[in-house]
Amino acid sequence: MRGFGLVLASALVFSAATQARSQDAPGTQSADGTTQSAQAAVPADPATSTPSSAPSATVANSNAAATDPTATPANSVAADPQAEAKGESSGGVVHHLAADISITLGPSWQEFDIGSMPPPAAIASYAPPFHLNALLALQNPKNISVLQIATSTNPLIGHDSNWLDTQLHMQSGSGMSVLDLIFYYFFPPSRECIEQVLTQDPKATFAPLPETGSSNNSGGGNSSDNSGGPVLQVSLACKAPATMLGFFQAQLSSGITFAQANSGPRAFATIKKFYLAPMERVSINGMTWFIFEAQRIDPVGPNASTNYNLGGSYQGAQSDYFWAIGAIAPFPFVTDGPRGNQPLIHVAYASVGANGNKHAEFMALLQKVQVRGATSGQ
What we know:
8 helices, alpha+beta, nine-stranded mixed β-sheet, about 15% helix, about 375 residues, five-stranded mixed β-sheet
């Protein structure tokens, strides 16, 4: 069995294949100090599990310009100069992503090196179809927050905002879920964790695959994968490092499963239980942004601060994740002559707080992103 497991794991990790939906964490006490539910990681019913102050949906037409009356104007967000997310209001430091994109933040925000461009090579073929080409990573140990700004190719041409809304609100493993984006590009498992599949003797089991997402997903599987019954799977729990990044990684996922399906190898994350807020569309400084929020339902446990050296007690708090996809207005869902190669800009943010709602802080940060070529005042 040992030799078979190793051969299977090697084939699964290094073979290009389609993506799958994630499975949920078992109902045990995890390293992040929370008790996990055995239910699937799906968008919760707002009527039964809505966290405090969940934002309202604002969905725009696919070809709407930044002046669309349905868009939320920039001045509708109260940007408190003393906001916790800014670090400190005085002594702002300008951080650059190449020459075209910058953000000015207080001195509590520090740039850090994430290593190679995510996602990790061994699971890159299962990731959403955004190819990152530049990334700026910052962290704020003063309020336990991580911010990343990146540029990518545009796989959204030919679609519209309604399609984007549907895709990013699907379950993780669908190929375009916001939880997939956060897992593969923001807090992926470490290379060392993935390589354990090759060096250990993991327990191979037979189990049904999660149902796949829409057939429109790039690289997504199909329903025929489940028609043959259970398939061989190898699951690996990833122990997150004792750092702030490790804390958010553990809050998001407990590991990854590799499976041999009828259509070929697949992989999916073990995602915790999240509430997915409705999509928002805002226009800020000549940019059109589509904003997605994933709020962890289970509170932080009593051991998290010690396990991840957070420098304070966060027991009972909730972690909140954001992903904004933006471009110079109007948003390029269709090829538009010289704007056909316009890159997308991604702003990802994770933080933790007593009421689990970091929406105002994220919006204050988003307003500080400056993009050369965008027209202010729209």
